[in-house]
Specification:
The structure is a homodimer. By secondary structure, the first copy, chain A, is of the alpha/beta class. Chain A contains 18 helices and 15 strands. In chain A, β1 and β2 form a beta hairpin.
């Protein structure tokens, strides 16, 4: 929700003032909005855009060289007045006439049309191109009634570039019209936004559901469905837009297209990139060629959670104009220094580290080690959600995912190394390296070091005895302690120290490995449970100390789970 | 919350793939993250940054000419592994050594330090600069323990620019260190974020409250307070940071400073600009000179609602490096074509339209018209919240604010015109123009046209009779009807048509103006209430038709309120 404002009635004015203060090298404030603060050649066309506020970077963020000459900035979600549009156009024009372009909404049409009449009355040549890209807002037969959403950017960008290269008003208008004809968008929303000072969101979507085709002001969509996966959303978008091809576009013939994946506010970049990964894959599979895409926030609605995909079907001239330089507060193209691309490399295939072949006895042990690591992966997969939940209480909730990534990579590496004849020690070293590499974070580094220490003691020569296994575990514990935690800090150390002690004691007392391991694992489980009583001392967890009392440490719990899971592999005769 | 993902364990990998697909002209995927896809001169220093994912544009978004040479991209909120950092550094370096720079978090220190050792072992010169800008995370006496937040950008930007101009490794390191020493940040959070696949947010802040000094992973802050106004937040930020001046910086001596107002995810641009407006004002008042600020999302935490202010205290060299060109996916400086600024103009003072002086009789009427417009402003102010709430049911919730802006502007213009001797007709025309100009949207245009039509009939000559007033109202109604709505559409037309009829009939029947107006106003109120039973037909409201049944139309209600409010001015003898 919108939280930061002073008097809600002053919000739009203060927003414009702050925007101008932050972007003085590109824009200056004029009555009703902003115009470029940079000079433009006399006689060129001025592209004037605009609409309600609340959609940044639309519309003021798109004023600058190669894009708009000015933007009329209305109140929140309300069209600028005819006076505002007129004043911005007069301040922006430089002798070549004015192209008014904006999304097709009733209030905007009313006020921009009135402004067009006022401008014409004062002797300024004016044309208008309304953006109508949203396929959900009207059927194909009434495409001119569709509203404008992120497709605004396509139309503004090529019109701005055409104006910048000196095209006359009729040519710029024709290009903008063609760009609009070749632009289609489709969007979904997960939750609404609230206006400054409002107690409630402007509209809502039930949790876990999405409104398909909902507009950027909450205009009702065409259907509602469960929120799909990222890939599922990409399917929905691409499939729909491939049935909405503009006249004359054949999507299956190497046709070039600009995709714009637009976030409406609180769907964030990381999610957009995951969706775009699938969009790019699907478009490529459909035979179309993706050109200079945009993934980010281009037309927003405050913090509305929503996404749209726009496809801008290029022709040669439109592609040239799309690629032309632009330099506005929120949209820039063309670096200051032309960059040379590195030669396309053959991606170095993941080099497999050469393995030290083990003796026959050690290869037998290696098979058990590899089985143990599979057991680790399986138990972590089974408990990943639970570990994440526990970790979120005191840490950052990533323990489940981190352990999952680490154990998955370790398992793959271990099976591969064992298959290539590595001894037990080498299998553990290779698995440890893969674990720490893929898991990252502190726990990844710790588990990597632990497996590596285990492997160092087991070696590649013999089938280890119970005593050797106990020594190896002790070495692994030492490696973990080297990271600095001590018992009582509420970390995995609280579980591994008793595990080590019981295992060493029982093996020394003559127990077989299976019963010694079983007893040690029980001790680790009890110790992990007991961490619930502790106050965390380390790292980020420290900052949430009190909350964490009552919940065990995720690292201690995952360690205890792992000791239990590998028991079956300890007990299988070689 | 994070909604769009496939398998949460694959999120970070798919995110990197999508990011690279969207930005191929600048970055290429390498093991562990990304490196530039553009060439760099042999022998220059490679700045390698990195950290956990979930903070876009940190860190991959900052790779490109003039900024980082590569970025290690860890899992969500988890440090990249030492192997990842090492691999990215090896892929990014081009003979001049590597500067590792990253925010100061335990996991990152662990893994980057291990990578530094591995790189040194393989013969690559390495230095490290940790960013420690967050003043909330440790006292001044332990400034080296502070964590890094949006100040990352300051350090990376100047280090990248120094590397690009060919400085050697020790020089780049010294510059990065100096930048970090001169950078301070302070932040607040209003709500937490949730990781992909998590059912609950990682942390929460009570509604209406903010955590002061909370970290970007939800690390506990130093205090909690009610959410302030935008100006109040600017005060909090600037006051705190002016007490945290780096050694040798005197904030009151024309010292130059870069402010960075950073949104964490769902606090949006419009809000940030409103806050920045106050930040800029306060800094200027404190005597410091604001240089090339940044307002936007530079270091985020998914959709966390939070804001931070960073102050980067410049010296001559740092300013030069800050201003140098950069061209990364998320951060670009320096346009493709150098732009010339327009000459600073004396802002044209708002030209006062010359008023037609009214006759004495008309000036007396003008005073009553001006009083009526004041009464309109007062009643709209009193009911603005209620009108917004009603409008949110069927429209976009802006009716209250729009009417408020319009009536406030109209009142100011009317008082001014009346004071300058305008007749009643001119006062109404001027007020109408101000109303439609400032309110914008459809309702602004309608009210502007209505006042203008009223004024046209009343003229500037005589004191109008009851019959003239009724004729004027009828003309205003005609002007409103010209916008296209008809009775039954659930618009203000449903209230103004009965108002017009009753007024005309009662005046024709010989009633005095006060009782006729009073009866007409009662009819308008009843008609406005009755719009609750109607299904809206017009504009955006149409899309929420069913929801709107049971709630009256906001435009009809505000019209009825206005007719009641001006009754007292109708009844005061001239």
């Amino acid at each position: 929700m919108t939280r930061l404002f002073n008097d809600p009635a002053d919000f739009a004015d203060e927003m414009v003032d702050g925007f101008v203060a932050a972007n003085q090298s590109r824009v200056r404030k004029v009555h009703g909005g902003v115009a470029r603060s940079t000079t433009s050649p006399e006689g060129t066309v001025a592209l004037v855009v605009g609409g309600g506020s609340g959609h940044y970077p639309a519309f003021g963020g798109l004023v600058g060289h190669g894009l708009a000459a000015g933007a009329a900035m209305g109140n929140l979600f309300a069209s600028p007045s005819a006076q505002q549009v007129t004043a911005v156009a007069k301040a922006s024009e430089h002798g070549g006439g004015v192209l008014l372009s904006y999304g097709n909404y009733a209030g905007d049409v009313l006020n921009f049309d009135a402004a067009a009449r006022a401008l014409a009355d004062s002797g300024i040549e004016v044309r208008t191109v309304r953006v109508t890209d949203d396929v959900a807002s009207a059927p194909t037969s009434e495409a001119h009634k569709r509203r404008g959403i992120a497709g605004d950017l396509c139309v503004f960008k090529v019109a701005g570039a055409a104006a910048e290269r000196g095209d006359d008003l009729d040519t710029v208008t024709a290009i903008a019209t063609r760009a609009n004809d070749r632009t289609r968008s489709f969007g979904v929303a997960f939750s609404g936004c609230s206006l400054p000072g409002a107690d409630e969101p402007l509209f809502t979507v039930p949790e876990g559901r999405m409104a398909i085709g909902m507009g950027i002001h909450g205009e009702r969509g065409i259907a509602e469905a469960d929120v799909p996966t990222a890939d599922g959303l990409a399917d929905l978008f691409v499939d729909k837009l491939l049935t909405e091809l503009p006249d004359g576009v054949d999507a299956h013939a190497g046709q070039r297209v600009v995709p714009i994946l637009n976030g409406l506010g609180s769907v964030k970049y990381e999610e957009l990139f995951v969706v775009f990964n699938a969009v790019q894959r699907k478009l490529t599979a459909a035979g179309v060629v993706v050109v200079e895409p945009e993934v980010g926030e281009l037309v927003t609605s405050f913090d509305m959670a929503g996404v749209s995909l726009t496809l801008f079907w290029l022709d040669d001239e439109l592609e040239q104009l799309w690629a032309a330089p632009a330099d506005s507060p929120a949209y820039r193209k063309g670096g200051a220094v032309p960059q040379e691309q590195v030669a396309p490399e053959t991606l170095a295939a993941d080099e497999q580290a050469p393995v030290t072949p083990g003796t026959e006895a050690s290869q037998a042990s290696a098979a058990r080690v590899a089985a143990a690591i599979t057991a680790i992966r399986v138990t972590i997969d089974d408990h990943a959600d639970e570990l994440g939940r526990i970790d979120a209480v005191a840490g950052d909730g990533d323990h489940g995912i981190g352990m999952q990534r680490g154990s998955t990579a370790a398992d793959r590496a271990a099976q591969d190394a064992a298959a290539r004849g590595a001894g037990a020690g080498s299998v553990l070293a290779i698995a440890g390296d893969a674990w720490s590499d893929k898991a990252g974070g502190t726990s990844g580094a710790i588990w990597g070091a632990a497996l590596e220490a285990l492997g160092r003691v087991l070696g590649d020569d013999q089938r280890p005895s119970a005593a050797t296994v106990a020594q190896a575990v002790h070495a692994a514990v030492e490696a973990v302690l080297a990271f600095g935690a001590v018992p009582g800090d509420k970390t995995m150390v609280d579980a591994i120290v008793p595990f080590d002690q019981v295992l060493t004691d029982r093996v020394a007392a003559g127990d077989d490995l299976v019963s010694a391991w079983s007893a040690a694992s029980a001790a680790a489980t009890a110790a992990a449970d007991a961490t619930a009583d502790l106050l965390p001392k380390m790292g980020r967890a420290r900052t949430h100390g009190e909350d964490a009392v009552g919940t065990p440490d995720a690292g201690a719990v995952s360690f205890a789970l792992i000791t239990a899971a590998v028991l079956s592999t300890v007990s299988v005769p070689a």
